[in-house]
């Protein structure tokens, strides 16, 4: 007999059971026909059928979805604007309109989205604020175009950073990228302005700080690594990357889910877990 009500776990278990018995992921109509569970019960606990399938641990079937690239990129841009940074797949899954699988079907790797969005938004002033939050565009040979262009000029970084003019505030040009302060650290010309920059910088110095990165993922926490705790002794640690340490709290992360925050700037005095502030770390490495 079909139950009159179902909780979230019931729905997930029913999807798993149906998939096991059929030998494949059930479509929405097949699930309803096979289990007798009405779509109403699914949508009480999940934003969509695909969300329910993902929660059950399966990849949703997006073959029958007809979406324009512009629809997807527009929603992705709204989430970047809301978070003030590029969302991970998990972050987008919770607050975005579409499934992350749909994006990968249209655009390939999740990491392709910043460049895809930049192309989509280049002729629209509506997205200027979002474009400034994106990492620098990559050329086909992997060289950062903006850094390559800047390197054509013999800019005295030390002179700029000490010049009395740098404290003056000027109007922002909306059609230009925004950089962090000059640092000129091992080819990195500017401070990170977002989480991606922090990840890149940590990758440059991890071994010198006593860390060996094992894996980086889109979910929480961002990274699994090992750190040296003595001669010939290493210990596994879970790392979450943030531009500023307080973002960890603002993003709603569980302190018990990570061991270390790696950030550019530590601005959270009450932080309950260990913090590596790269801003200070590279000063020691430069000394």
What characteristics describe this protein?
287 residues, alpha/beta, two-stranded antiparallel sheet
Describe the structure.
The longest helix is centred in the first third of the chain and has 15 residues. This protein has 287 residues and is an alpha/beta fold. It has 3 domains: 48 residues; 101 residues, no CATH class; 92 residues. About 10% of the residues have low confidence. The chain has 14 helices and 7 strands. It has a 5-stranded mixed β-sheet. Strands 1-2 form a two-stranded antiparallel ribbon.
* Run of helices and strands: HHHHHHHHHHHEEHEEEHEEH
**Structural class by SSE content:** alpha/beta
Cα-based radius of gyration, to the nearest Å: 23 Å
Estimated share of beta-strand residues: 5-15%
Enumerate the strands of the largest sheet in spatial order, edge to edge or round the barrel.
Answer: 3-4-5-6-7
Number of helices: 14
